[in-house]
Amino acid sequence: MGKIRNPQYRIVIADSRVKRDGKAIEFIGVYHPKEEPSLIEVKSDRVQHWLSVGAQPTEAVIAILSKTGDWQKYKGLPAPPPLLVKAEKPSRISRYELESKAAAGLVEATPVKTAPKKAEKKTAEPKAEAAPAEVKAEEAPVADAAE
């Protein structure tokens, strides 16, 4: 799944005799590596069921299951450290209510975090050497007009 420069993977249970992109038996998770931190969602109970009945995971799926702790649970190894989780965004409604109260003077205004602005382009100052020399009217050559 996904698109150019944004890969997204589904973790599925498939029969080994079926084509690579053929019909899957069951969908058990997702992996989005480009998100910060990477999104890994796995149905742990279904993973344990399929491993217990003899499913053979690929090397990539073993790496993902090792991060979630499902592979260690199946093998009887100690659990890995917990995964990083993306901070939850405040809802738009609560943000609106907080800003409206701040505008009414009921609550002290808090600064709103916004995306950093792009650096402004610096304008180059003209150099004194590059400026054209002024020519005084007295020194300028005079053209004679002949009638």
TrEMBL record:
Biased composition (Low complexity): 129-147
InterPro entries: Ribosomal_bS16 (IPR000307), Ribosomal_bS16_dom_sf (IPR023803)
Comp. bias (Basic and acidic residues): 117-128
Region Disordered: start-end pairs: 109-147
NCBIfam families, A to Z: PRK14520.1, S16
Species of the source: Allocatelliglobosispora scoriae
GO biological process: translation
Xref: Gene3D superfamilies: 3.30.1320.10
Gene Ontology annotations for the cellular component aspect, listed alphabetically: cytoplasm; small ribosomal subunit
GO molecular function, one term: structural constituent of ribosome
The protein, known as: 30S ribosomal protein S16
Keywords on record: Ribonucleoprotein, Ribosomal protein
Domain of life per record: Bacteria
